[in-house]
Design goal:
The protein has 85 residues and is mainly α. It is 76% helix and 0% strand. α1 runs parallel beside α3 and α2 packs antiparallel against α3.
Length: 85
């Protein structure tokens, strides 16, 4: 479930932000995990941190490649009156 949520968060970040947002979001996720689950060994903690971080970056790449398609879809669904003269 966490992998899917991280991937969806990456897609949303890829649709709206540039690549510099990945580092702070990944660090925030690592810190949140470290604070919420103390007492784990190095192996399980590393796997629990790396797998969602990689999923976040993969989702970002999916969102980044889908930017143009999303923009066309959003423009097509916009039913507001045109402001052109």
């Amino acid at each position: 479930m966490l992998i899917i949520l991280a991937c969806l968060a990456g897609v949303l970040l890829g649709l709206t932000f540039n690549v510099f947002v990945l580092f702070p979001v990944t660090i925030a996720g690592i810190l949140a995990y470290a604070l919420l689950s103390p007492g784990q060994g190095f192996g399980p903690a590393t796997a629990a941190i790396l797998i969602p971080a990689i999923s976040l970056q993969a989702g970002y790449m999916i969102g980044l490649t889908g930017r143009d398609t999303f923009a066309h879809l959003r423009a097509r669904l916009n039913v507001a009156q045109s402001k052109r003269v």
